[in-house]
Specification:
With about 160 residues, the chain is mainly α. The chain has seven helices and no strands.
Length: about 160
């Protein structure tokens, strides 16, 4: 077993501080990032035939998606709320299938969905805080047919809180 990282204690303290001081908007971004990270790790586990960690990572992402579902107010929400709820539900079900089938393509599809939703939330936060405009966000979306997974994980977060 490799030696423990001597900085783990400080990393945990930083992560805890980052979460406990985050705004609700920033917490949403952190949830998306966490789910995406879990799924990226699950893909690696499938490639390495590490079935235990594959299941744990997929389950972690599924739990985050279920938590995102709980944040939607279906009683007072509009059609967008209901569509988002259905999309989250479909992603959660696809994660169960992907786990059983050891299917990285299904994981990629969920990662893409999460990345796109995350991008939308990030842009909404930036628009609300005055960092960007609706017009600029629409131009960016048109220029980048779909947001990229890896660069999106840590870009623009400083504007979220």
């Amino acid at each position: 077993m490799p030696p423990a990282n001597p900085y783990n204690k400080y990393i945990k303290q930083y992560q805890t501080s980052n979460i406990t001081t985050a705004t609700p908007e920033k917490l949403m971004i952190l949830l998306f990032d966490g789910a995406i990270q879990f799924l990226l790790k699950a893909k690696t586990c499938i490639e390495e035939n590490n079935y235990k960690e594959r299941s744990e990572n997929i389950d972690g992402a599924r739990k985050i998606i279920r938590e995102l579902m709980r944040t939607i107010d279906l009683e007072n929400g509009n059609d967008v709320s209901k569509q988002l709820f259905r999309l989250y539900n479909r992603m959660a079900m696809n994660l169960i299938k992907a786990n059983v089938q050891k299917n990285t393509e299904m994981l990629d599809a969920v990662i893409e969905d999460l990345t796109n939703i995350r991008w939308g939330f990030q842009k909404a936060i930036e628009i609300q805080s005055g960092v960007t405009t609706v017009e600029d966000a629409m131009k960016e979306q048109a220029a980048n047919e779909a947001p990229q997974v890896h660069p999106a994980l840590n870009q623009g977060d400083e504007n979220a809180g």
